[in-house]
Amino acid sequence: MRSDPKETGLRQVFDDLVRFETMLWNALDRRLQAECALSLGSLNTMLVIASTEHCRVYDIASALVITVGGASQAVDRLEAAGWCARQPNPADRRSSIVVLTERGEKLLAAGGAVFDAELEHRLREPLSATALGHLGRTLGTLRRAHARDEDDPAG
Questions:
Q1: Which residue of 20, 43, 46, 77 is 20 to 30 Å from 61, comparing CA positions?
Q2: 8 Å CB contact between 54 and 95
Q3: Could you give the angle at which helices 40-51 and 5-36 cross, rounded to 10 degrees?
């Protein structure tokens, strides 16, 4: 049975995309662990907290495309390390606002610098500005299309 060349091409794109994502995640995580004793997962969560006004666990889950339970566990780990704190939500007593502590803000600044440097090395150095722009727009288009499909499973 022969494979359809079109199908094989899509499989190769999938394979390259997923494998590169894994390689990139691992490289970023290794460097963050070595230089800041910070995991990439924790940095990702901290980036969302820092950039989201009145950040709730739900906001973290939505931004990182993970479950609310997973986001809550991530916040628990950050809180246990002293990098964030939960505060009462004045607009909704059933939820909390998550904020970075002073220690968390300092760690985010250090980790963010390492993160940015590694992204420069892994993405900007091997790609031209045009290619990087195309990649960014293409991935954004795919994410939006997927989000629409998720919102309307009937398609």
A1: 20
A2: no
A3: 90
What is the C-alpha separation between 132 and 138, in angstroms, rounded? Answer: 10
The residue type found at 89 is N
List Cα–Cα distances, 145 to 8, 25, 31, 136, 140, in angstroms: 22, 23, 32, 14, 9
Q: Which domains does the chain have, with CATH numbers?
A: 5-147 (1.10.10.10)
Instruction: Return the pLDDT at 149.
Output: 82
CB-side exposure of 52: number of CA atoms within 13 Å? 21
Q: What b/e string do you get for 33-59 counting C-beta neighbours within 10 Å, with b at 16 or more?
A: eeebebbbbbbbbbbbbbeeeebbbeb
Q: Are 114 and 36 in contact (CB under 8 A)?
A: yes
Place of tokens 């629409």: 148
How does pLDDT run across 101-121, given as a tens digit for each residue?
Answer: 999 999 999 999 999 999 999
Query: How far apart (Å, rounded) are the C-alpha atoms in residues 46 and 48?
Result: 5
Query: What is the C-alpha radius of gyration for the chain, rounded to an integer number of angstroms?
Result: 19
Other residues' Cβ atoms within 10 Å of the Cβ of residue 77: 14
